[in-house]
Amino acid sequence: MKFIKKLLKAIAISLVLLIGSVLLFIILIKKMPEGEYSKLDPTDKKMFDELTLQYKTFHEKPDQIWTSSYHYDQEPLIVIRSQKNKFIWRYIYLINASKYINTKKFKKINFPGNPYLKDVYAATSLGNLSGEYWFPGAFTYSFLKDKNVLAFKYYPELFEKEGSFPDFKYFSMHEAFHIYAQKDWTYDKEGKDHITNYPFNKEHFDLLRKEYSLLDKGLKTSDTTELNMIMKEWVKIRKKRYKKWPQLINETNSEAIEGTARYIEYKYSDLIGKTRPFITDNSGKVISFSQGLEMILKDKANYSFLTRTASYDKGAALGYILDKLDPLWKNKIEDSPSHKGLTPYEILKIRY
Q: HSE (CB half, 13 Å, CA atoms) of 340?
């Protein structure tokens, strides 16, 4: 009997300590930010500075990044202040979200003189919605009314080194592009952007070497006559690969989905004067696609990059090439269940 009493007492003390710890956590960690930009901490200021530049650039030059109909600067966004482990988070900012959630119960954050951040509110919880923010992922999606909204975590280390991965300025717009610009696209439905039974053999690698070499040449030239000759040969190599290994056609879908999301990163970096190379080696040195391929082929442990990851930059590079050959390519790639779009490969294939 005494043992049971001691056990119950120990449980009661443990519960009190647990409740006390939770309350202390709420008081110390879940503290609301100040209501004025000038009073925000350095990390929040950096995050909002990055967003301001993003929004300003998209507002002024949307068609130089994607199309004039994609208004990233007007889309809702949830940003979550977290720790680097992305598990513990402190508070939430809702941006451009007043049309989708009642913001009267949240704290208005003011940005005097900033026309791009007029609709910003802070909260320590969104009720059931914010329960998923405890999972240690870099981002997730939350439904506000009938709108699927990007919820993106940020933390001090995300802004410490320029060009590090992930880099807030590019990573956030990349994921936003997937959910807003590509919301109806079907290229990646049912795993159509993944390749099974990838041919890791010499015959295929030799064809890849020719293809990557042509891609390098296509990026370098500004002569459209020469470029057409290069890309016509590039299409021939692609056709040969797909005839021999039909499963490889799925790379055209990942080039469409991930390549365009990476493409807007590069176009944005060009506009803000921080042009990024497509490929760098482990030391950060700029290298060609051909050199990057050789780096992959040197080590079998890297082969998996060819199945999908390589499509990010290949797809972006094809976008730059199509900018020179077909100004309407961004309209042609638009996709939905009722209207099949054309992948960059299909646009080039039809051309030749």
A: 5
